[in-house]
Every structure is written in structure tokens, then in C-alpha cells.
Amino acid sequence: xxxxxxxxDDLYREVILxxxxxxxxxxxxxxxxxxAEGLNPLCxxxxxxxxxxxxxxxxATAFRGRGCSxxxxxxxxxxxxxxxxxxxxxxxxxxxxxAQLTEDAEPDPALGDLEALHGVAQFPVRxxxxxxxxxVLREALTPIETVDDR
Length: 150
Ligand code: ZN
Known about the structure:
Blueprint: H1 14-21, E1 34-40, E2 45-54, E3 57-66, H2 69-82, H3 87-102, H4 124-141
Antiparallel strand pairs: 1-2, 2-3
Helix pairs in contact: 1-2, 2-4, 3-4
The site of zinc ion has 8 residues, from helix 2.
């Protein structure tokens, strides 16, 4: 079976371009409780993430960044998806998101719009772009302990 270059459209789906053009939760929070930032030197992508975590729930999210449409739309969709989620749910989403990119797992319905980035799995050089904001999120949440109740 030959593996042709996947069509470019797989990478730049409309929902991705929409989040890139109109990023959700762009900016900074007044009083973040957690923050982290990161860089993907391969592509020049940058993401700085701020969160308000109350108890075990992520109440507010914001990010500032620059870089390619994959890195920035991933951050926009991620901040939308995790707002209102518990830290434990968010860690589960991290695993599901990574799995759809690095293990080519079928997207889990829990990912919502983030499923659109599944096509990036066929473009290995871009996987780091999509994962950047999630690495930053992991770092931001590192001080918070959760019980894995799966
Ligand atoms: Zn990139």
C-alpha cells in the first residue's frame, strides 16, 4: 500500500483556521493562579498560558502567543475546552489529545473541536506545534495534585 502525501486540506480544516483568525481567550487574566509558557523552536511558536484554578476546577483561561496556525488554534481550542473542567478531567484530555497525534488513536468525543487537529498526526513535523500549548498546560498544572480515579 502506497502512502501518498495527505491532502493539505486535512491539515487546515475550517475550524482550525477559524480559531487561528479569531483566537478565543486571547490575552491575560487579572489575577491568574497558575501560569507557564513555552517555545517550539522548530517552528518558532510561542504560547504563554494563564489559569484561574479554584479548588479542583479551572475557572478561567487565557493565552498569548504567536506562531503558526496549528500552534495558535490548538491553544485557542484548548483554552475553550478546559474552561470549567476539573484538573483531573483536563489531565485526561491531555492524554486523549496526545494519543490522537502521537499514537494516531481515533479522536475521543470528549475532545470536541480539538478533534479537528487529528489530521496533524499525518504531518510529524507539525505535531510539536499542536502539542506546544498542552506541554505548557501540563507545566502550569504541575503543582496541583489530583487523584487518578479512572
Ligand atoms: Zn508551528
